[in-house]
Amino acid sequence: MKTIGGGVEIKRLNRIRTMQYILDAKMVSRQDIAAALGFSMPTVLQNVADLIECGLICEAGEYGSTGGRKAKALSIRGGVRCAIGVEVTAHHLHMVLSDLNQKVLDIASYRFPYQNTQEYYVKLGELVQEFVKKNKLGIENSYTLIGVGFSLPGILDQDQGMLLQSHALGVFNINLGQFSYNIPYNTCFDNDANNAAYAEITDKQQNTIYLSLNDTVGGATYINGRIYQGDHYKSAEFGHMVIVPNGEKCYCGKRGCLDAYCSARVLKKNGEGTLEPFFDGLNKGVSENERIWDVYLEHLALAVSNLRMAYDCDIILGGNIGGNMEGHMYIFEEKLRKYNNFDYDTSYIHLGKYKRECSAIGAARLMQDRYIEKIETFSVN
Q1: Are 180 and 142 in contact (CB under 8 A)?
Q2: CA angle 138-133-123, nearest 5°?
């Protein structure tokens, strides 16, 4: 019986690996899968047949002929399995709907200040249900919604199902079930920076540091295909590395933290509003904006150099500021070289793709990954 059960599990895991490879590669042939995963062609053919039968992948055309029969191109079937990502912040709620192709199908944002009250959690459930109804999930296409992923600012204990601490929300030891209690779908949770990393990191084979530059500074460490959580779920708190001893006071109570020098609040007038006025002025050559930006980049270069020294891998600058740095990288790279004489080539630095809803997109992708990890063969037709 163990042999039979083990054989079934191996087949399931091989099917999952096949699905994940097609998802990451976007479009592949059966021959590509065999070469990349080291599967025999009969194994590939069976896996592909199973995934086509259950409606998760499809044949999306043909490759050019090399003399024989044209190879069929395989891709994820769009719109069949969708997930909702929900990003909770101190003042807003952001939601996205995306399919397994990781195509964003809909976005909604609400001015919805967080409160640790029953009224808030009930209203949260209502907003998610309205978003589901708007997109006709669970009505005409009940099979399409695989679940809801949540993105929360703070330190999460996944084993205990607790939000241990969130300075942004001003709470401690909140049961994660509060957020999902009024939502009748599968749910999962992760830290906002981890979710942003899920959205931004496209090469799952590449070790990467993600530095989130928003109203607070956070990050994620992506090593060997997974987010490294740390022994106490506190890894990658890059915003609270001290870069200026006895420097500016941080909201955490310490002085000199990276957050106090490189959060988006530093660039906003009175720490409020949006970044557009600052970057508009910067691009027009306003001297005060140029001075503030020069100091900002100096501190950011110091932090990024330290991260490169510690981890020796690629680094993504994400969040609202990372999304606005294109066109300013040459200045940043010059500053970076002053602190790092081991890497004159700065090609290890990448800018994030998403300026908005990044963590919500990542939360949806996390839900999709959880679904794929538990995939079974069943039809959706």
Answers
A1: no
A2: 115
Pairing of strands 82-88, 92-99: antiparallel
What local confidence, expressed as pLDDT, does residue 4 receive? 46
**CATH code, residues 202-354:** 3.30.420.40
Give the pLDDT confidence of 299-342 residue by residue, as tens digits.
Answer: 999 999 999 999 999 999 999 899 899 989 999 999 999 998 88
User: What global pTM score does this model have?
Assistant: 0.85
Using CB atoms within 10 A of its CB, is residue 24 exposed (0-12), middle (13-18) or buried (19+)?
A: middle
- Considering Cα of 167, then 296, then 356, then 284, what sign does the dihedral take? positive
CB 219 within 8 A of CB 239: yes
- The SS3 assignment for 240 reads helix
Q: Is the dihedral of CA 312, 318, 321, 323 positive or negative?
A: positive
**pLDDT, average across residues 258-262:** 97
C-alpha to C-alpha distance for 45 and 126, rounded to whole angstroms: 44
What are the backbone angles phi and psi of residue 365, rounded to the nearest 5°?
A: -65, -35
Residues counted in the chain: 381
Domain with CATH 3.30.420.40 in the chain: 82-197+359-373, 202-354
Phi, psi of 187 (to 5 degrees): -135, 155
Round to whole Å and give the CA distance between 193 and 322.
13
Report the topology of domain 82-197+359-373: Nucleotidyltransferase; domain 5 (3.30.420)
Strands (E), 39-153: 57-62, 72-76, 82-88, 92-99, 104-111, 145-152
pLDDT digits (tens, 9 = 90+) for 16-72: 889 988 888 888 999 999 999 999 999 999 999 999 888 888 888 776 555 556 678
Average pLDDT over the chain reads 89
